[in-house]
Amino acid sequence: MVDFPEMRQVMVDRQILPEGVVASRVIGALLDIPREYFVPRQQQHIAYMDDTFPLSYNRFLLRPVVFAKMVQALAPEPHEKALIIGSNLGYSMAVMSQLVHSVVGVEEVAVHSKEAEKTLERIGVKNFEVILGQHNKGYPNSGPYDVILLEGRLGEDPDNLFEQLKDGGRLVAITSCPTRADEVTLYSKIKGQISKVSICGGNAPALKGFEPKSEFEF
């Protein structure tokens, strides 16, 4: 029988902490949320693997340490509102729900959005809303947001999502550059201006709706 709580502890001890993710609230959320609930049942035994986890419809869960670094970079606070773009089966929303007042997830795959709602309710999350919609449009109806996390790699800056950030808000994503490796990038909005800083290396497949021009499907 698989000991999932032990697997979560091992994930934190061997993957997360050694890479400099030490924010106590982030670590607590990663230990609290059963990642195995957010993958297909037949693959639950590898839910905590140190790699990007493939899902159906060409979607994926971020590698645990990359996701943890992104959340830590956002420094979410209990009074804040979060937006997750590409929320998949709801794992990122579940973790963020422990760290903010409310979280909205936008997901393009209808099957995933419905499954996310069921699983989030199953584990007792109440402060969430799942929206079936286009990733690159975000969800301005519930904005503006204090923090936005994009679960995947971008081909260019997400300019339209900056409009959904509060002043003082933060957005984190994995960005690509032709001259260097992919990286986790933190964008901040101060007095209407956007600045960005590289946090660390980190890779992931392209997020649907934010592909480089050459990756668009026709």
Keywords:
218 residues, alpha/beta, two-stranded antiparallel ribbon, 9 strands, globular
Q: Give the percentage of residues in beta strands.
A: 25-35%
Count of folded domains: 1
Q: What gyration radius follows from the Cα positions, in whole Å?
A: 16 Å
CATH architecture: 3-Layer(aba) Sandwich
Topology pattern, helix = H, strand = E: HHEEHEHEHEEHEEE
Oligomeric form:
single chain
User: What share of the residues lie within helices?
Assistant: 25-40%
Strand order of the largest sheet: 5-4-3-6-7-8-9
Helical run tally: 6
Distance between the termini: 46 Å
Query: What is the CATH topology assignment?
Result: Rossmann fold
Mean pLDDT: 93
Which structural class matches the secondary elements?
Answer: alpha/beta
* Number of distinct beta strands: 9
Shape: globular
The CATH homologous superfamily: Vaccinia Virus protein VP39
Main CATH class: Alpha Beta
Task: Give an overview in words.
The chain has one domain (4-212): Rossmann fold, CATH 3.40.50. Strand 3 (81-85), helix 4 and strand 4 (102-107) form a beta-alpha-beta unit. The protein has six helices and nine strands. It is globular. A seven-stranded mixed beta sheet has the order 5-4-3-6-7-8-9, covered by helices on one side. A two-stranded antiparallel sheet has the order 1-2. It has 218 residues and is α/β, with parallel strands linked by helices. The protein has helices spanning 4-16, 24-32, 64-74, 91-97, 110-122, 159-162, and strands at 53-54, 60-61, 81-85, 102-107, 128-132, 145-154, 165-177, 180-190, 193-201. Helices cover 26% and strands 29% of the residues. The model has no long low-confidence stretch (mean pLDDT 93).
